[in-house]
Amino acid sequence: MASPSATDHERPMTDDRSPPSSGADPAGTRDPAARRDRLELPADEMRRLGYRVVDRIVEHLDTLTEQPAIRRGSRNDLEARLRRPLPEDGTDPEQAIEEVVRDVLHHTGQVQHPRFFGFVPSPSNYVGVLADALVAGFNPFAGTWFAGSGPIQVEMVVIDWLRQLCGLPDSAGGLFVSGGSVANLTALAAARHARLGSHDMGLEQARRLVVYLSDQTHSAVPRALRVLGFGDHQLRRLASDDRCRLPLAELAAAVAADRAAGHEPFCVVANAGTTNTGAIDPLPDLARFCRRQNLWLHADGAYGAAAVLSRRGQRLLDGIGEVDSLALDPHKWLFQPFEIGCVLLRERQILRRAFAVHPEYLRDVERGDEEVNLADYGIQLTRSFRALKLYLTFTIFGARAVRAAVERGFDLAEHAESLLRRQACWQILTPAQLAVVTFRYAPPGADPSTLDRLHDEIVDHLVADGTALLTSTVLRRRTVLRLCTINPRTTEADLTLTLTRLQHLAATLLRS
Amino acid sequence: MASPSATDHERPMTDDRSPPSSGADPAGTRDPAARRDRLELPADEMRRLGYRVVDRIVEHLDTLTEQPAIRRGSRNDLEARLRRPLPEDGTDPEQAIEEVVRDVLHHTGQVQHPRFFGFVPSPSNYVGVLADALVAGFNPFAGTWFAGSGPIQVEMVVIDWLRQLCGLPDSAGGLFVSGGSVANLTALAAARHARLGSHDMGLEQARRLVVYLSDQTHSAVPRALRVLGFGDHQLRRLASDDRCRLPLAELAAAVAADRAAGHEPFCVVANAGTTNTGAIDPLPDLARFCRRQNLWLHADGAYGAAAVLSRRGQRLLDGIGEVDSLALDPHKWLFQPFEIGCVLLRERQILRRAFAVHPEYLRDVERGDEEVNLADYGIQLTRSFRALKLYLTFTIFGARAVRAAVERGFDLAEHAESLLRRQACWQILTPAQLAVVTFRYAPPGADPSTLDRLHDEIVDHLVADGTALLTSTVLRRRTVLRLCTINPRTTEADLTLTLTRLQHLAATLLRS
Questions:
Q1: Residue A335 vs residues A120, B85, B276: alpha-carbon distances, Å
Q2: How far is A446 from chain B (nearest CA, A)?
Q3: Which of A218, B70, B210, B327 is deepest in the core (most CB within 10 A)?
Q4: Low-confidence residues in chain A, pLDDT < 50
């Protein structure tokens, strides 16, 4: 090897043109104006502002039950308050934070509120908040082992906890993503790759693939398929049975018909808890059918799969360990702040085969087999450390408490159903299933279309007064109300208050 | 309308089986064990733990320059420290937090460190951290106006600031996503939808579409195309010119050849700042060419587009306002914590046409035209409030300070280049461009392959000692070092220290 002279190559790199050092603070590191130009604040100010933010969060959480469950601003009002040109100059941080809390964060559905029963609530927990704050502050990168070994190790540990809870084999694994939409999309992309055995999605074969789902499947799934490049003609949306489940006989008939027509049946998307009613498709039957038919079985458990943590959930979700892939959202029934979804593959290496790319500027990250690069397993290269909140929640509260919190969701829905059943005018459309109950105000003799409109009006009134939030859905062509009770801080008194208010609204609005 | 009797329909919903109230705390809301089963902590404990987290973050940021720029754990060591079964019981929160800081968060590349020059750093700012903490605590939903009017209004305002900075027309808009990968994917999905005018991706036409990019394009783009269902045969990866840019003449020839062969040229992906060298493709020429040829022009500005904030960046990025779509990552050069990417479309309604879906259980959100549902504009339905951190950063520091911070990135790279040019043994491969400089240790007479290995070893030594982090890349088949200087807290002394260390390592390793 050439041996250059040390004198030339080891002298320090200095810049003769640099201004002479002006004493203790040559680069102006302590000058407030210079600091701002580096987007930097003094430590004492950082601490003070941080405490202020903590105080606002704690105050909010501690008074949540006294606040409206939802506040919706009008576009006009919010435009007037919040539209402004890009500010050239800065402003007082405390004041800016107070304004955001007052004008922005209060104009939302309070998805953690004990009487927010609409859509799927996100009854987060404070330990998850602490974890997200740590992640924001330390800003770890969880894409490659090279730059994120600690976070990736924790993510693998937490993924393995979920894998075991779901009864998936050792070969299974996955990663955390932004939520159910991307979890479903990631799983379906991997499924397609496994089928085609190639990155060449332009193949004629790709256009023949057919995916089966029910009319209760979450819209995230057809949207994901659309993004993946599946044509509408490649989706078979089967009518669900009277318990809102994918009917096996109709599925078998559709698969046979497609084969006969020269299509290639490829994937069944099962619901492991529908958003609409909490219905669970017959997973063991579907698993058997898919194995026999060489079909990929994906389960969308974004809403319901977390219930495996509980005894009742485990029974209901029997067969979930048989699927080829699974989406599961910890920001729903595992009590995490947005955004944390999870995708699990029965064979985790399929994710890697489907997603890995290796550009030159990442060459330094590819040195060891033991060093897992989670960026190779999904869409994102830059990935934050979503796993920490679930890790700390399980670590600090223990699985026992999380399980109790899940069980409580079941109890609350059953309690709500029993309260509704005591009143003759309420009809239960679907009984409490996975903490969802759907029902309709239907006094004898009332006109069904009038009642449809009534339920829309009930929701409008709830939003306006904020006592509680329920949302509506459509079942068997009729508008019904849905109550999703996964918030462990919901009390029986909250349910009574909410249902009493509903009953009053329904009776009053129907009379008027 | 039927008028049911008030006595039947307005009496409160009560449950006779409820246990009698046992005084001040009937539901056991203050009992510590019951609280844990609801994943709840008392306000004073929440406050104490929150302050603790703030203290750890501030301590970390305040001592960053004294810490290693990177720490990488071995898989074996981290498995031993962090692998454990799902804990059934909880543990002390303070202790759990301390362990996470020590064992997990310290085992990462410190992407905010003033001497972290590898890959693309994420030199976040503390105001962004405060915003992320607020978002975690309040857990707002930014998918629909119904449940997230305040956050959506702010997101639209911030998106409009970026739109104006990029010189895009009033019709332009977009949304925040997890990062550059999803921003590129979202834009390309919209581009395809605009071309096909249909959700039917199974069309024969979809398989004929061809996308053009250069060999310097970020791997996120081919990965996104693969996920979208484009076959490898639909990508044309053109060799870049001697300034690492997409060559217009070769592009024109490739498009003409494809048309002649019956393919359908559809989209050009331009780089608005490559990750490798900061090179910017000739945007005005490409815009003219694409207009004439009826091609969609997408710019991947994930790394570089934020530089439009500065005078120099604006000049370099001339033509960026002409693109049809743009990806831009505020978690890079706009100083935000992960994860915030942004996708902007010249015609924002194309996003809506490409992504909107309308399931029954979201019917309550579709009532007013003025009420924007950002979930209709991209892949995610559940979306957190990514916009807040950028909003608060601009509000508290002002655009003036953010601009100064961007300008500093240019200055630092130019300074590093000038330091390197003073030493004969360092060869500049690509001069400072958008805060990236690439260079190689090349003393006269040294064997090129030996030098390739030398640069790998230099990176290994830097990782091991942590003084600074640089990473390598490959340019014109040779291994070179890259310095990405977008951290405004980097000082000239940091550069001198880093380059002196490099020089010492290079000379020593070459001799050994």
A1: 12, 20, 40
A2: 6
A3: B327
A4: 1-10, 17-23
